Amino acid sequence: QSVLTQPPSASGTPGQRVTISCSGSSSNIGSNNVNWYQQLPGTAPKLLIYSNNQRPPGVPDRFSGSKSGTSASLAISGLQSEDEADYYCGAWDDSLKGYVFGTGSKVTVL
Amino acid sequence: QVTLRESGPALVKPTQTLTLTCSFSGFSLSTGGMCVSWIRQPPGKALEWLARIDWDDDEYYSAYLKTRLTISKDTSKKQVVLTMTNMDPVDTATYYCVRTVGSGWLLDYWGQGTLVTVSS
User: Fold this and answer.
1) Cβ separation of A91 and B105 shorter than 8 Å?
2) Sequence-distant (≥ 6) Cβ neighbours of residue B67 within 8 angstroms
3) Which of A22, A67, A99 would you mutate first to test chain B, the one with the most B CBs within 10 A?
């Protein structure tokens, strides 16, 4: 049960900027931090962005996150072929008292 | 370095109980802020968080599945066990064990996952 809504897909040519949105509510994104995960084909997800806009060590600065109200966004600038993956947002939900993920967005590099 | 590995049956029959074990290294579940979560992903579908157990024995469960789930830990063995009762074909998924850090819910280290198929 995905509580957070993402566009199913996004695409761009190498070097372009791509953004993915994550829409939630006051009980999740509106009151808690958002994390983003990247899942390359056939592999386990990987933490990409935490606390809305922080990058773990080793994550290129081409990836950036932001949050406003009950929505969050992930931006990939200077798109590269190795960025082809599924991307998921996630946040704690105060009403459900559980962690919720987004519906997932598949990024394609044309 | 931090590693996690899931183990358990690849195939279970409907109505059976699934027991999955997460064996981890590189951190301790007795350290403040350390937690382990279970997350699953049906083939071709989105991630779904199932449960979490904390260093201080707090437990959290998905509201949708809480009546079927139990999470437990053996700190000395560095293992976390998830049981899910009354398995159904819709529970067919890859199940991941994930280190989780504190209130920020940083799911920062993931196991490789184990595919569980529910079929008679």
Assistant:
1) yes
2) none
3) A99
Let me know how long chain A is. 110
Label residue A28 exposed, middle or buried (CB < 10 Å: 0-12, 13-18, 19+). Answer: buried
In whole angstroms, what is the distance from residue A95 CA to residue B5 CA? 31
Could you list the pLDDT tens digit for every one of the 110 residues in chain A?
778 999 999 999 999 999 999 999 999 999 999 999 999 999 999 999 999 999 999 999 999 999 999 999 999 999 999 999 999 999 999 999 999 999 999 999 99
Strand partners, A93: A98
Which chain B residues are Cβ-neighbours of A53 within 8 angstroms?
A: none
